[in-house]
Batch of 3 targets.
Target 1
Amino acid sequence: MSKLKNTLSCGNCFNTKYVTTLSENSRLKIDVCTDCLPKGYSKEIVEYSKTKCLEINSKEIDPENDKDFNILLKELKSDSSLFNIVNSIELFKKNYNDIKKAIKHKEILENPDKHSIVRTVDAHQFTALHLFTRNQVFQIISKPNRAKKTRVDEYGKVIDISEDRTFLGWGGNIHFTISGPVLCDYDQQVFDACVKIWHTKSKTGIIVETNLSEIWKNLGNTSTIGKVNRESLRRSLSRLHKVSIEVRSMDKKNKSFWGGGLFDTIRYIDTNENKIFIKFNLYMASNYLDGSYATLNHNLYNNLTSYAKKIYMFIMSHRDSDRFISIDKLRPLIGVSDEVSSKRFKDQISSALSELKEKEVLDPISKIENNILYTTVLSKAWDACAIHNQMSSSSCL
């Protein structure tokens, strides 16, 4: 059962406004005001009298039962002052499939190998399109080059140097600006581990409590975390929360833009338990919940080399089986550092291409010609991934 309710205080900005709790049983349950609703939620809800709000709160509706909806809508439509509530309920019913898919994540957690998911891409999904394949945010970078991205302050503390990276996304109509420390593959694994911990603990809302040892284990380690690894994790978490992202539409008729960070806030308490409180970005909440640590094909992915993983994730994150793209344009889209020479980059792509052919992901006709990468995905590769049209995935776990 689900209920329309009012909340006297927004969990994000603490304003006193009313919201709709979408599901009592789903992790999509986030109490926020209309100004703070994340992407994909209805903003049709407006403030209305407390009397009317309480009147609606007493109504419980079964999303699976059209009769319940219709009776409630008929009653509400008799009062013109409740027009916005009617809109809200109709939108709730329309989007109920999105609520049900969140509940399915429990199944994914219990057996992720059998729930390999591929995202689909729609024109309006430009904020999620690239961010949640993680290709632009996290880069392939060598240890020597990582060392160049830091400095030592006057107290002997290692400080990460911030950089700005700007480039066009897939199709050329999306403009990305990423600011902050350079994030590498290790940072990506730490980020995904944090998301996985959040899912595993089945927390409602956007805050999860964890610790360094728990993150260490979710990275796949069985040994006890030592002093060096603790420091590496602390530094990685510090880098993650410093990164800000802006995604801007380049369409002349659409001036939309989106800005935010991978995490909203991180609070680390340096005690024996090393408690860490992570607040996920509210406007990314729906994407975190979309199985964001689930892999495309768990067994295959883990057996690919670094570049092959990036190429595999990129090509399988779009609808078309056949595509071509310039090698130069591909570089930022799969998160490869500019410090990797063009020759080495092309050699690595060629090697990854051969690997994906051998793994029967790409058709043998896939090739690099005149600095253009042509790829054709085999039907058996699509069959290996359970394609769910309304669900998205992205992870390196």
Target 2
Amino acid sequence: MKVQISLFTNILSFGKKARISTNSVPNCVRKLVNEFQDWRDLQKNAKKLQDVFKRRQQEFESNLDNLFDIAHADALQLMKIEEDRMFLQRQREPGRPSHLGGVDKKLTDKEERARLRAVKEANQRIKHVSASTS
């Protein structure tokens, strides 16, 4: 269980870097365990040639492509940046043609300026409150 948690913690860090709302670790682990159980069930019936078993194998193979789709179900609605939405949509396509690139310097700089502005405002409020109480 520790291995699955560690695995998905690392995978979810990529979702965070890509600004994608992700599922929680327990949900991801549950999905992996369910896929493993499906695989074990398919192994038991591997020699059977009936259509039902062939269909189950095909469903399993198609679900396997989505095993590491860690995005939240409402991720597209929650995202505000169109480029991030397009990235997620491309990640969900067969073959996953998109990949994470370098750091978005413009966005990083913008966020840093906003953070510094918030800290500065908080310091000013503290000074104002302490000056008015003196």
Target 3
Amino acid sequence: AKRAAHEADVADEEDGSVEFRDVTMAYSRGGDPVLRDVSIVIPPGAKVAIVGRTGAGKSSLIAALLRLRPLAAGTVFVGGVDARAHPHDEHRQRVAVLPQDPFVRHGTVRDNLLLSRADFDASVADGGDATRTKKGQRRVLDKAMKQALHDVGLGQLKLSDEVGEQGGKLSAGQRQLLGIARVLLSGGK
């Protein structure tokens, strides 16, 4: 019954709205708040850029959204549901965040796109121990990754292309587009 109630809550989250309601957060217990009484409503499907001077709280907003730090006060809602209602890993899979300079690891385009898909078995992605079912899963995954690359204007890249150390073989713009493709694959709202 508890699992069914949890799954019902998850279904409600599908609208993708985000709300910060009177959020206060500090980086140390009893420390000065870095966010104080912040209230923001982001409607479903909105594309939001967070800008501001150094120390304004941009990274702190993301830390609060991803539950990287406990809140001193207030609540963050995703899809109208308190973000604390779900285990950390499930919550983070529902939220897609793209930093200005996205992380790109040494390896292939495929390796970097897979960072967004914790739900796929790595042996499926790299072709290891490929049973018939796994081969089918890999084809589906490869098709989705190629579509995401095409959607962001990186259709010329192959999944097997090496990106170099910290994405050094890609331009800064290509690294950002790769990050956007990763967000598209993540399924976050």
